[in-house]
Design brief:
Helix content is 41%, strand content 27%. With 96 residues, the protein is an alpha+beta fold. The relative contact order is 0.27.
Length: 96
């Protein structure tokens, strides 16, 4: 499992210009079961995504299609971890 920490490196005007395409990319990742939850940082300096992919290499390949990455809008830190505990609500949502 992975935490994606995106930090904007361009002005919010650039973020907003690419945002509709980025949201379509996210929709595709949700439909494929890769993204679990995502949202904006507060204050609005980037975003966080919880993702599930077979490997870091697979995830990195998928993220190359993210308009935020392609257009140099955000830098993405990928944190890989092995979940060892979770709430019942999370297990139910993940079908565990």
């Amino acid at each position: 499992m992975f935490i994606l920490l995106n930090r904007y490196v361009r002005p919010l005007e650039d973020v907003d210009r690419v945002l509709p395409e980025h949201l379509r990319f996210q929709d595709e990742m949700y439909a494929r079961g890769v993204f679990i939850v995502s949202g904006r940082l507060v204050p609005r300096t980037g975003g966080v995504t919880l993702a599930n992919a077979a490997s870091r290499a697979e995830l990195e390949a998928l993220l190359r299609d993210d308009p935020f990455q392609r257009e140099g809008i955000a830098e993405c830190e990928i944190v890989e971890f092995t979940p060892t505990r979770h709430s019942e609500a999370f297990a139910a949502a993940m079908g565990l």
